[in-house]
């Protein structure tokens, strides 16, 4: 079944809800309206070889989960799925009576510590990553191996290129041999096949050196530093190519230099995790709306938010340790519910 086929056969829908910011009551002017739901595959497709776990439209702002996949994700305490099941009635556009068989309290468990708070931590990493990328931009001109090579001179060191210029040498004409018992240490000679084979090389090159040829200097290649730089360069420019320009401009506009939307969802997830541990329910429409929108508007300093995150995560850990929630959902009970839904649904068709 495809999204288009489901739209043409709405009798297979079990649930359709407004989701995202409009469900959380965190929408602002310009916010998109997203939809999520649950459907049942036609019987002949369920019995066939190709199972369809979910369908969506091209823009992915409408997503529908097949009931089997929906129950499977409920058993994992997936935040999106628990939120969908717990959506406030005014955001529910259609709800089949069979959905009454699936109760949030049957599925909420201590797995939510990882699924909600754990996901929040990924949002923190995103916010930290943006903060780092904004404050530590990496130039487009990529550094080479030579930029991470240093020559010992006197009691200090000189960058290799500076030393070569000082000696009137060219790296292409020099040679290297490995220096024993000195990690990433080399002897530099006046003649050889070059210190690197090309500008794109990712390591230094060794040359055959005549026995008795005196070395000019000792050189160290900061290989670890070069590896870190290459990774950060790749990640930075991939981020530059893929970043959401509007979100980036908003991060710069509020002057705090972090992704405020990601940070808002960090606190939303953390607060929801605490509510699950202490109240045993998923509260979708946010009672902390004002605070969350203040976070989104960039009202708080980055360091202050990080301090709040640390305090909140410690509070959540204590709450889950003391919570009477089950360790994990009862999968046998979940399967019984799923069978009952399918049987009843197909019998009425």
Detailed description of the structure:
Pfam families: RlaP. GO terms for molecular function: transferase activity. Keywords: Transferase. This is Nucleotidyltransferase. The protein has 349 residues and is an alpha+beta fold. Among the domains are: 1-104 and 327-349, 2-Layer Sandwich (Beta Polymerase, domain 2); 145-229, no CATH class. Helix content is 46%, strand content 14%. It has 14 helices and 10 strands. The protein has a 5-stranded mixed beta sheet with strand order 3-4-2-1-5. Strand 6 and strand 7 (156-159) form a beta hairpin. Helix 4 (67-75) runs antiparallel to helix 14 (331-347) and helix 7 (112-135) runs antiparallel to helix 11 (260-279). The longest helix is centred in the middle third of the chain and has 24 residues, at 112-135. The two termini are 17 Å apart.
Describe how the helices and strands are arranged.
Blueprint: H1 3-8, E1 13-19, H2 21-24, E2 34-39, H3 43-46, E3 54-56, E4 62-66, H4 67-75, H5 79-85, E5 92-95, H6 104-107, H7 112-135, E6 149-153, E7 156-159, H8 160-167, E8 175-178, E9 185-189, E10 217-221, H9 223-242, H10 245-253, H11 260-279, H12 289-296, H13 302-322, H14 331-347
Parallel strand pairs: 2-4
Antiparallel strand pairs: 1-2, 1-5, 3-4, 6-7, 6-10, 8-9, 9-10
InterPro entries: RlaP
Protein name: Nucleotidyltransferase
Keywords: Transferase
Which CATH C-level class of the domain at 1-104 and 327-349 is it? Alpha Beta
- Strand count, sense and closure of the main sheet? 5 strands, mixed
Question: How does the helix and strand content classify structurally?
Answer: alpha+beta
Q: In which range does the helix fraction lie?
A: 40-55%
Based on DSSP secondary structure assignment, what is the total number of beta strands?
Answer: 10
The largest beta-sheet arranges its strands as 3-4-2-1-5
Q: How do the helices and strands follow one another from N- to C-terminus?
A: HEHEHEEHHEHHEEHEEEHHHHHH
Q: What percentage of amino acids are in beta strands?
A: 5-15%
H/I helix tally: 14
Terminal residue distance? 17 Å
**Radius of gyration computed on alpha carbons:** 29 Å
Mean pLDDT: 91
Q: Describe the global form.
A: elongated
Question: Ranges with pLDDT <50 over ≥5 residues?
Answer: none
CATH architecture of the domain at 1-104 and 327-349: 2-Layer Sandwich
CATH third-tier fold name of the domain at 1-104 and 327-349: Beta Polymerase, domain 2
GO molecular function: transferase activity
Protein name: Nucleotidyltransferase
InterPro entries: RlaP (IPR018775)
Organism: Chitinophaga lutea
């Amino acid at each position: 079944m495809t999204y288009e086929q489901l739209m043409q056969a709405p009798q297979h829908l079990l649930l359709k809800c407004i989701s995202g910011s409009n469900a959380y009551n965190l929408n602002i002017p310009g916010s998109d309206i997203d939809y999520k739901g649950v459907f049942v595959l036609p019987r002949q497709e369920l019995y066939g070889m190709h199972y369809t776990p979910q369908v969506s439209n091209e823009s992915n702002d409408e997503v529908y989960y097949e009931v089997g996949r929906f129950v499977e994700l409920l058993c994992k305490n997936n935040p999106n799925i628990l939120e969908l099941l717990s959506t406030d009635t005014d955001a529910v556009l259609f709800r089949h009576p069979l959905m009454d068989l699936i109760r949030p309290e049957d599925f909420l468990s201590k797995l939510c510590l990882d699924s909600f708070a754990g996901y929040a931590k990924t949002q923190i990493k995103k916010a930290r990553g943006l903060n780092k990328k904004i404050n530590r931009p990496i130039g487009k001109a990529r550094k080479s191996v030579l930029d991470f090579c240093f020559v010992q001179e006197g009691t200090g060191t000189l960058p290799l290129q500076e030393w070569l210029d000082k000696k009137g040498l060219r790296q292409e004409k020099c040679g290297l041999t490995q220096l024993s018992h000195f990690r990433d240490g080399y002897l530099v000679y006046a003649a050889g096949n070059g210190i690197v084979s090309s500008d794109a090389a990712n390591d230094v090159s060794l040359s055959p050196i005549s026995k008795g040829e005196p070395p000019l200097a000792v050189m160290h290649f900061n290989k670890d530093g070069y590896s870190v730089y290459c990774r950060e360069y790749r990640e930075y420019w991939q981020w530059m190519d893929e970043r959401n320009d509007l979100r980036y401009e908003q991060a710069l506009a509020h002057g705090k230099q972090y992704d405020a939307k990601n940070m808002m969802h960090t606190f939303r997830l953390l607060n929801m995790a605490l509510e699950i541990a202490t109240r045993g329910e998923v509260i979708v429409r946010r009672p902390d709306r004002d605070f969350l929108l203040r976070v989104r508007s960039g009202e708080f300093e980055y360091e202050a938010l990080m301090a709040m995150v640390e305090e909140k995560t410690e509070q959540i850990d204590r709450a889950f340790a003391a919570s009477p929630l089950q360790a994990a959902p009862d999968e046998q009970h979940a399967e019984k519910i799923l069978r009952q839904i399918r049987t009843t649904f197909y019998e009425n068709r």
